[in-house]
Amino acid sequence: MSTASRLDVIKPPEPSRAWTKQRIVGYFLVSLWGLAALGLIIFLVRAWNPELFSRYAPSYFSGLIITIQLVGLSLLLGALLSLPIAYARDATSKWAAWPSYMYVYFFRGTPLLAQTFLIYYGVGSFKSPLEALGLWWFFRDAWYCALLAFTLNTAAYQAEILRGAVKSVPSGQWEGADSLGLPRLLTFRKIVLPQALIVALRPYGNEIILMIKGSAIVAIITVYDLMGETRRAYSRTFDFQTYLWAAIIYLAIVETLRNLIEWIERRITRHLKR
Amino acid sequence: MPMLSKVSLALSAAAFALSLGSAQAQDKIRIGTEGAYPPFNALTADGQLVGFDIDIARALCEEMKAECEFVTQDWDGIIPALQASRFDAIIASMSITDERKQQVDFTDPYYTNSLVFVAPKDSDLMPDNAGDKAIGVQEGTIAAIFAEENYPNADVKAYPSQLEAWADLQNGRVDSVLADFGVQYDWLETDGKECCEFKGDVVSSDDKIAIAIRKGDTALAEKFNTALAAIRANGKYAEVNAKYFPFDIFGE
Amino acid sequence: MTCPIDGIAIEMDRFLSLLSFSPDGWGDEIASGLLVTVSLALATLPFGLAAGFFIALAKQSSEPSLRLAANIYTTIFRGLPELLTLFLVFYGAQLGVQQLASFLGIETAIEINAFVAGMVALGAVFSSYASEVFLSAFRAIPHGQYEGGWAVGLSSFQTMRLIIFPQLVRLALPGLSNLWLILLKDTALVSVIGLSDIIRQVGIAARVTREAFLFFGIACLLYLALAMLSSVVFGYIERWARRTEDVK
C-alpha cells in the first residue's frame, strides 16, 4: 500500500459533544459575560455625549501621557537603583547586606499609598530644613514626590527580581568562565546576565503592569494622571461613563503589554525549544 | 466567577435585607457631610462632628422633631452616595449649581457664600495676578471650577479636601488658596493666623448654599424648608451664626 | 538654653501624647483603623480563596467555554487598577442595583456599604491572582494521582477532597501567602472610598495635628508589623502542611 492511499483513509467523524454539566455552566457563564459586554456597549452608546467627549477626551489623553511618563521614568530610575541594592543584598559584609534587606522589606511590606503619603505630606512638612538643603523645589512638586515614591518602591521589587534571576543561573556557568580566565564583570555581562534576563523577563513584565495599575493612586496627591483626569471629569459631571472609559483604556494598555511580553518571551527563548 | 457572582448576589441580598430592615424604621433622617471643612463641618480628635452645618442640621432636626444621624463621606463621592441612598440629605456647605441640579434637588438656601483668595502675608498676590502661579483648591467645588475657568494659565492644584489645600499653602506648594469666604475666614482666625491673610476682595459672590436631597424627594425638601423658616424666625439660626461668625452669613 | 536631651525628651512626650488613647490622642482612632484593615483583609480572604479555587478548576477544565469565561474574569480583574475596580464596584454596583430595583419596581433603599464594596473589589482581584496560583499547583500534581484515586474506587469528588486537595494546599501555600500580603496592602485603597482604615485615620490625624511624617510613619510601621505577624503565622501553617513529609 502506498503512503498516499493511507492518507486518503477517511477519519471517523468526531463524536458529537454531549451537553455535560460543565458545558452548560460554561455556556451560561460565557453568555453572562456576553450580556455584560452588551450592557456596557448599550450603556455607553446611550450615554454618548459629543459635548462631553470633546471636552474630556483631550484631558484623558494628557492624563495618559502623564501616567506613561511617570511609570516609564520611575521604572528606569528604579532599575538603576535596584542594581546596588541587589548586589548589596548578597554581600558578605553585614553592613551592606542588612540595610539593603531592610530597604527591600520596608518597601515591599508597606502599601505604595502609604509610602506616597509619607513622602508627599510627611517629608513635605519639613519645608525649612529642605530649603536649607536646597531640595525644596523637588519636594514642592507633587509629580516629583510621586516619581520618588514610585522609584524607591519599584527599586525594591526590581532588586528582588534581579537577585532571583541571577541566582537561578547555575554556579557552573561562573566556574566555567572562571576556568577560561574571564574577568568577573565580563562573565556577568556576557554569560550570566543574558541567561538571567530570560528568567527575569516575565517578573519584569509583571512589575511594569503592577506599576501602571499602582500609579492610579497619584490622583490623590493632585497629579492629573489618567485616573486623576477621570476623577476630575467625574466630580464635574457625576456621569459614571467617565470611570468606564478609564477602565477600558487601562485594560487595553495592560492587555497590549501582556501580549507584547509574551511575544518577546517566545522570541528570546526560541533557542531553548526542542 | 461562579462562586463570586453567587457571593456578591448573597451579599447584595444581605445588604438588601438590612436596608429593608432600616427602611421600616424610617423616621430617622440620615445626613451626609464631609467632616473636613471647618468651621462648617469637621471632625475632632475623638471623632465628633462639629461645625456650622452640623449645628444647623441639629437645629433643623429638632425643629422637625426627627431623629438624625450623621454619616461622613468624602466630597468627591458625596452626590453618588446620596443617590445610592447611603443618606437622605447632604448638609455640607454645598453650593447650588446647574450641574448638581441635574443630579439632585436642593432646598431653600441656608447661607450665602462668596469666593476669596488667601495667600502668605509677604506675598504680593492679588486676584488679578493669582493666575500666574499655583492656586490650591478643593476638587469638585465651585472654587475649582471658577479657578479653571477664570485663570486658564494658572497651575490649579485640586485636593481631595480643603485641609490639604491649606496644608500645602503653608508648606509653600501652592501660592494661594481659593475657597469660600466662611472657611477662609475661620482658618485665618485659627491655624492660618500667623502665615496668611485675605488678598483682595471676594472674586465671586452670591453662591447659594443649600441642602441637597435625592431627586423627587419633595416631601423631605418641604420639611427642611419649613424647619429652616422656623429657625430663622425663632432666633435659633442667629444663635448658631453668632457662634461661628461675627457677621450675618445668611445673605438677604 | 535647654540641653538637647531635654529637647528630645519633650519631643518624645509630645509624640506619646499624640499617640495616647486619651480623647486628645490619636491612639484609639488608629487602633480602630487597624481593626478595620485587619477585619477587611480577613473577611475578603475566604471568598477570594474559594472563588480563586473554582476559577482555577474552570481554567483547567476540558470544556472550552468554561475556560473562556474564567479567562475573561482574570483578564479584567488583573488588568484594572485596584483603585478603579474599587470605584467601579462602589459607585457602579450601587447604580446597577438601584436601576435593577427600580426596573423590578422595588421601592427601597439598597445600599452596598464601603466595607462590602471593598470586600467584593479586593476579593475579585485576589481571586483572579489566586486562580493562577491554584492552576500552577494543579499542574504540578501528576495525573497518576487522580487515576490512583479512581482505581481504588473513589468518586471524583472524593479524589479531589482526599488526594488532590491536601497536595494542592501544600503546593499553593507560598504563592497564597504572597497574595495575602498583597491583599493586606491593597486594603489601604479603601480609605479613598471612605472606610476608616489605618490610612484614613492617620490621614485625619496628620491633617489635624500637622504631624504628617509621624503619623504616616506609624502607618507604615503598622503594615510592617502586620506583614511580620503574617509571616510567623504562615510559617506555622507551612510546617503544619508539611508535617507528613517530616515523619520519615
From TrEMBL, chain A:
GO biological processes: amino acid transport
Domain of life (superkingdom): Bacteria
Single annotated GO MF: transmembrane transporter activity
Ribosomal protein keyword on record: no
Transmembrane residue ranges: 24-48, 60-88, 100-123, 135-157, 208-227, 242-261
Pfam families attached to this UniProt entry: BPD_transp_1
Limits of the ABC transmembrane type-1 domain: 64-261
InterPro entries tied to this protein: AA_ABC_transptr_permease_3TM, ArtM/GltK/GlnP/TcyL/YhdX-like, MetI-like, MetI-like_sf
GO (cellular component) term, any one: ATP-binding cassette (ABC) transporter complex
Membrane topology recorded in Swiss-Prot or TrEMBL: Multi-pass membrane protein
Keyword terms, alphabetized: Cell inner membrane, Cell membrane, Membrane, Transmembrane, Transmembrane helix, Transport
UniProt-annotated location(s): Cell inner membrane; Cell membrane
Family assignment from sequence similarity: Belongs to the binding-protein-dependent transport system permease family. HisMQ subfamily.
Protein's name in the database: Polar amino acid transport system permease protein
Species, as recorded: Aquamicrobium aerolatum DSM 21857
TrEMBL record, chain B:
Subcellular compartments: Cell envelope
PROSITE patterns, A to Z: SBP_BACTERIAL_3
Segment forming the signal sequence: 1-25
Domain Solute-binding protein family 3/N-terminal: 28-248
This protein's UniProt keywords: Signal
GO cellular component, as recorded: cell envelope
Superkingdom of the organism of origin: Bacteria
Cross-referenced InterPro entries: SBP_3_CS, Solute-binding_3/MltF_N
Family to which this protein belongs: Belongs to the bacterial solute-binding protein 3 family.
Protein name: Polar amino acid transport system substrate-binding protein
TrEMBL record, chain C:
Domain ABC transmembrane type-1: 34-234
Subcellular location: Cell inner membrane; Cell membrane
InterPro entries membership: AA_ABC_transptr_permease_3TM, ABC_transp_permease_HisMQ, MetI-like, MetI-like_sf
Entries under Pfam families matching the protein: BPD_transp_1 (PF00528)
Transmembrane segments: 30-58, 70-92, 112-138, 150-173, 212-237
Entry annotated with the keyword Cell inner membrane: yes
Keywords from the UniProt entry: Cell inner membrane, Cell membrane, Membrane, Transmembrane, Transmembrane helix, Transport
Membrane topology: Multi-pass membrane protein
GO cellular component: ATP-binding cassette (ABC) transporter complex
Signal peptide residue numbers: none
GO molecular function: transmembrane transporter activity
Record PANTHER family: ARGININE ABC TRANSPORTER PERMEASE PROTEIN ARTQ, CATIONIC AMINO ACID TRANSPORTER, MEMBRANE COMPONENT
Family of this protein: Belongs to the binding-protein-dependent transport system permease family. HisMQ subfamily.
Full protein name: Polar amino acid transport system permease protein
